């Protein structure tokens, strides 16, 4: 008698502007599963506290959660909300500890890293108009924050890596191809 495989979590990690949300959406679509944005856990907590959803408040609340619960804080909170019988694509894994939380909860976890050179990430972020006139400095601050949270280690230890240096179509193609590989593995 064969044992049923545990549900799958594909956790996508990468620095700001790397293309991780595009990859997460494409993988979720290809696998036919829900995409969950991990940062929404922190944004909901900011809202619950009655704070304005400014980057500073989000950063502060995220830091407080991690001080109280450790580097896996967001995953601990999110794992309580997810159906343990379902598979998901998680957009925005920030640390190896977060992946370990999901493994301990019984999911089969595959980490997908998305890498793009700094200049390409800056150009993408500028085209979105998100960081204003001081975009280069803002990206540096966001990168440093992400690296402190553990994104560099999560990228280094990813099960699969997508290098995003081509077109949007190329990125989506690679993500969907990877989804088919992951679903068979």
Give a description of the structure.
By secondary structure, the chain is of the alpha/beta class. It has one domain (10-178): P-loop containing nucleotide triphosphate hydrolases (Rossmann fold), CATH 3.40.50.300. 56% of the residues lie in helices and 15% in strands. The protein contains 9 helices and 5 strands, in the order βαβαααβαβαααβα. It has helices at 20-31, 39-48, 55-69, 73-81, 96-104, 118-128, 135-149, 151-156, 168-184; strands at 8-14, 34-37, 88-91, 108-115, 160-163. A 5-stranded parallel beta sheet has the order 2-3-1-4-5. Helix 1 crosses helix 9, helix 2 packs across helix 3 and helix 4 (73-81) runs parallel beside helix 5. The mean pLDDT is 91.
Instruction: Write down the oligomeric state.
Output: single chain
Number of discrete helical segments: 9
Portion in helices: 55-70%
Q: First CA to last CA: what distance?
A: 20 Å
- The global form is globular
Instruction: List segments where confidence is low: pLDDT < 50 over at least 5 consecutive residues.
Output: none
Average pLDDT, rounded to a whole number, is 91
Q: Kindly give the count of domains.
A: 1
- Determine and state the CATH class: Alpha Beta
Share of β-strand residues: 5-15%
Pairing-aware structural class of the strands and helices? alpha/beta
Please name the CATH topology: Rossmann fold
Sheet with the most strands, sense and barrel status: 5 strands, parallel
Order of helices and strands: EHEHHHEHEHHHEH
CATH arch. level architecture = 3-Layer(aba) Sandwich
Say how many strands there are. 5
Radius of gyration: 16 Å
Can you identify the CATH superfamily?
P-loop containing nucleotide triphosphate hydrolases
């Amino acid at each position: 008698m064969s044992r049923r495989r545990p549900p799958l979590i594909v956790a996508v990690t990468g620095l700001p502007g790397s293309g991780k949300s595009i990859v997460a959406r494409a993988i979720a679509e290809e696998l036919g599963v829900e995409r969950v944005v991990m940062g929404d856990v922190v944004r909901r907590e900011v809202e619950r506290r009655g704070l304005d959803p400014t980057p500073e408040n989000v950063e502060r609340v995220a830091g407080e959660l991690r001080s109280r619960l450790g580097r896996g804080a967001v995953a601990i909170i999110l794992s309580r909300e997810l159906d343990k019988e379902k598979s998901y694509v998680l957009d925005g894994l920030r640390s190896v500890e977060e992946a370990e939380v999901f493994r301990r909860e019984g999911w089969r976890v595959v980490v997908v890293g998305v890498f793009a050179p700094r200049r390409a990430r800056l150009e993408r972020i500028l085209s979105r108009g998100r960081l204003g006139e001081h975009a280069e400095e803002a990206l540096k601050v966001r990168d440093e924050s992400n690296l402190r949270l553990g994104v560099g280690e999560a990228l280094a230890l990813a099960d699969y890596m997508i290098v995003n240096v081509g077109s949007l179509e190329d990125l989506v193609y690679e993500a969907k191809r990877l989804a088919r590989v992951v679903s068979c593995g």
